[in-house]
Design goal:
Length: 345
């Protein structure tokens, strides 16, 4: 990625999009009706008379499909898009994953820019160049690595986001705190209610920036996710299995919360994370407003973990905590310990 821009005002976004439309032969904005309607984007910035068109994606994971991919290719051809067309993905992870994938395929790759509109998109999905569509009910099975030209973080978009989606985003934010940054974790724990009440506050922007920096730093070291980028999977290996087991009824964010709770339990049982720190984390996680009453089938979740892309040579790699802010990777956790941690969620 060439640049990351943090905007506070609509006129900054307006200028950015105006500049794009001057620089490229045409601009196709990929988004969802939901986002365009709720954000009232077209009323807030003037797109009239510019070489800009919208490709509207379905408001569901269905838009990350081969069917939508084909639709988007027809759209780009019908709009005479060429190698100097710019794609802008304006949306949550669904839109940014999909538009990134389309941009990596059309004419062997055209430039794209991402404008994440969800909290999870700002701190995670739009950063790091992973693009994807789903296939045969498997999430992100077909995809590519392609960095956008730039990313625009504009917290104003978060004002229209459902509370549930904000909580989903906090799963990834707390992940960064737990694996890299105790101060950030402590701060969020102390100020959680204030933070979720105002998504455009300076404190919130500071947290988003820190998360973006952590992710960019890791991605620079391991773009193709074959080494240290694995650290970002804290809570995800068990979380993905929970998500898959629910047939994606349980959201990614909630699944990561469950997965992080299990990973903390394993870390404590492995005599790494102290009992005090474990209780400190769990007391906070328990007040996050998600359904903590679900009982998980440890056998099923464990067997689904074996489908995870992160399994190497038949061994499950788990990211665990030494202490808050200090993480490590282990492939030495027994099947029974993992199952126990799932029963304990
Ligand atoms: N590429 C990556 O590295 C990466 C990382 C994590 C997740 N993902 C992917 O991200 C996707 C999930 O993304 P997500 O959690 O951002 O959610 P999402 O894209 O599914 O969006 C959630 C909902 O919020 C709505 N929405 C988005 N922005 C809004 C706004 N500003 N105001 C009102 N409504 C808005 C959307 O229309 C949708 O209904 C999954 O497909 C996942 O696989 C990718």
């Amino acid at each position: 990625m060439r640049t990351i821009n943090y905007f506070r005002e609509y006129h900054e976004l307006q200028k950015f999009i105006d500049d794009c439309s001057k620089l490229y032969s045409n601009v196709i904005i990929f988004s969802q009706l939901n986002i365009l309607n709720k954000s009232k984007l077209e009323a807030k910035i003037n797109l009239d008379g510019k070489n800009i068109d919208f490709f509207v994606c379905d408001d569901s994971e269905d838009s990350k499909s081969l069917r939508s991919f084909e639709k988007s290719m027809n759209f780009l051809i019908n709009h005479k898009c060429d190698r100097n067309t710019l794609i802008i993905g304006l949306g949550g992870g669904i839109v940014t994953d999909f538009s990134g994938f389309v941009s990596s395929c059309y004419m062997r790759g055209i430039k794209h820019i991402l404008i994440p509109t969800t909290l999870l998109g700002m701190v995670d999905a739009s950063i790091g160049g992973k693009t994807a569509i789903n296939f045969q009910n498997k999430r992100n099975l077909i995809g590519s690595f392609k960095l956008p030209e730039s990313i625009v973080i504009f917290p104003e978009f978060l004002k229209t986001l459902d509370k549930k989606e904000i909580i989903n985003g906090f799963s990834e934010i707390l992940k960064y705190g737990l694996i890299f940054d105790k101060d950030m974790f402590d701060f969020i724990k102390e100020n959680f209610n204030n933070l979720i009440a105002d998504m455009t506050s300076n404190d919130m922007l500071k947290i988003i920036k820190s998360c973006v920096d952590y992710k960019i730093d890791i991605v620079k070291k391991d773009f193709k996710d074959i080494g240290i980028r694995n650290m970002l999977n804290f809570g995800h290996t068990i979380g993905h299995a929970i998500e898959m087991n629910s047939k994606y009824e349980i959201s990614h964010g909630e699944s990561v919360f469950y997965g992080m709770k299990a990973a903390c339990y394993i870390s404590m049982k492995a005599n790494k994370l102290s009992k005090n720190e474990y209780n400190y984390i769990i007391n906070f996680l328990n007040i996050i407003p998600i359904n903590w009453d679900i009982k998980f089938d440890d056998e099923k979740i464990y067997s689904l973990m074996n489908y995870d892309k992160k399994i190497k040579n038949g061994k499950i790699n788990l990211i665990l905590l030494d202490s808050i802010g200090v993480s490590y990777i282990s492939d030495a956790i027994s099947e029974e310990s993992i199952k126990e941690s799932i029963r304990n969620i």
